[in-house]
Amino acid sequence: MARIILEKTILKNARVRFILELLSVFIVGLVVGIVFLRPTKTTNGPPGYTPTPSGQYCIQVITQAFNPQTGDVVDFPTPCDVPKGWEVAPAGCHYEKVVCVIAPCKPVLICPTP
């Protein structure tokens, strides 16, 4: 009975129908915003960054490091990913491997001249 009254009177009114459609779009947008666009959960750090297990926050910047024991040069995605004991290249510098004929040699640190 109530459905018949709703269909015959309220839904035939264009203004009421427009308001109901607008309200439904708003509700769907609100649900999508709450579910998908909520900020990441961080504590005491900048938004969008997640702490490492030690509680440290890392910026996403490629960090080149050199392993003095093996001579390997590796690009890591963040400074926090560099293992202990590795030497990190200073900002603006990079390591370059050189070929040695007589003995194995360490990579050379290349920095721009001031």
Give the N-to-C terminal Cα separation: 85 Å
Helix and strand element order: HHEEEEE
Mean pLDDT: 76
Give the fraction of residues assigned to helices: 25-40%
Oligomer: single chain
Number of strands: 5
Radius of gyration: 30 Å
| Most strands sheet | 3 strands, antiparallel
Range of strand content: 5-15%
Any idea what the shape is? Answer: rod-shaped
* Class inferred from helices and paired strands: alpha+beta
How many domains in all? 2
Are there runs of 5+ residues with pLDDT below 50, and where? none
Number of helices: 2
Strand order, biggest sheet? 2-1-3
Could you describe the 3D structure shown?
By secondary structure, this protein is α+β, with helices and mostly antiparallel strands. It folds into two domains: 2-36; 63-110, no CATH class. Helices cover 28% and strands 14% of the residues. It contains two helices and five strands. It has helices at residues 2-10, 14-36, and strands at residues 63-66, 73-76, 87-88, 94-96, 108-110. The strands form two sheets. The protein has a three-stranded antiparallel beta sheet with strand order 2-1-3, with no helix packed on it. A two-stranded antiparallel ribbon has the order 4-5. Strand 1 and strand 2 (73-76) form a beta hairpin. The longest helix is centred in the N-terminal third of the chain and has 23 residues, at 14-36. It is rod-shaped. Keywords: Membrane, Transmembrane, Transmembrane helix. The chain crosses the membrane at residues 18-37.
